[in-house]
Amino acid sequence: MMKFMVRQKLDPDGNVTEDHLQPLARLVADSIQDEPTGSVRWLGGCGTIDTKQFYMLFEAPDHEALQQVVSKLPGLQSIERVMLATKDTLARGLLLGLAKDYEERTSR
């Protein structure tokens, strides 16, 4: 599954609850169940209330599948494929790198 960042910017007179929170809740409700349905998963997001700009992280099989799900969001700005780095993925990468260095150093 690929990771995507979806950017939404509401008009200055946009209503955060009606134009962001409620439509997003409808989009992601199925993906946060104990047994998610559909191929698109909401992973989280952040935004600013003052500028009414929001960034949402999704996991989807491809750009087209995600586009179908988020296309009705008011103020949709972009959908971009991204790399996700978390403490878990960084720790795994660090451990793999240390293990490789150790193997190379001790095999000489």
From TrEMBL:
InterPro entries, sorted: DUF3303
One Pfam family from the record: DUF3303
Protein name: Uncharacterized protein
Entry superkingdom: Bacteria
Species whose genome carries this gene: Prauserella marina
